[in-house]
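sanity check this record:
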Amino acid sequence: MSLSARDEDYIKVSSIDAFFMPLHGIPTIVCYLEDGRQFYLFSVPPEIVIAINKNKGNKEEEFADKRENIYDIISFIPDIIEDLSKHVEKVTIDDMIRETGVYVATVELKFDGVVIQKRMIPSHAIFLATITNKPIFVKKGLVDEQEKESREGQQKL
């Protein structure tokens, strides 16, 4: 499984947590990286937080919508997950749209040896990786930049 750039430009995600931030209720995903750092995605769709937790066996009852959604249906049908698992190779959070401040993920799909890359919303791509048990990577430069902005923000307080 090759990354599109040098391997040292990316950090593998060892685990993730998805939750609603205490006090403010901001839906958040934290990617715990193999180098010991963390990468944060804030204001992700609430249904993704709930779906990731359901997939992990956790329950978000107080926030859960009583209606089913597309993530519930996908998770409910094993054949869909099995088929997705045959094609999804990996997820890489590798870009940011500067004008809007949102991250972009690339999902690598393989069909009969042909690799196709699709740009996705990172939280959706992470959900896809979690249900198919595929690896997630984050571009090192994005992690470094997020840490720098966090330090600068703390210094202003």
